[in-house]
Amino acid sequence: MLAGRIVHTSSPACSGRAAARRPAAPAPAPRRGVRARGKLNDAALVPVMERGEMSQYPDAPGVYAVYNANDELQYIGLSRKVNASVAAHMQSLPDLTAAVRFEVVEGGSKEALTATWKAWMEEAREICGVHVRGMALRP
Question: Which residue ranges does the record annotate as region Disordered (predicted)?
Fold first, then answer.
């Protein structure tokens, strides 16, 4: 599903631009002893197109966040192949896919991917103050 969207604010999680970080409450601990990996704000922002060619993304499982040309967060997803998911976003929604933050989740278990995705979603919700439509977390 490529329809999830989020509204822009001035935070680095909401925007690809550097901005002062507000202290965020810790994300809830994932279930089943699976810990989330890194934070959304800590992942590098990689342009989708460089010199007229699509950037290279890992052919590995991971979590990714898509930003538009105005550095507004559009979508947070998880994938078994990050490169294929980014290519699908670029093909389906080129105007909304300018840059991506991603993190490879070693092993790629469903639990590890879900824990990292939930942590990124919670971070975006806390900092941006809005929910990603179509992929909202249940309380």
Answer: 1-33
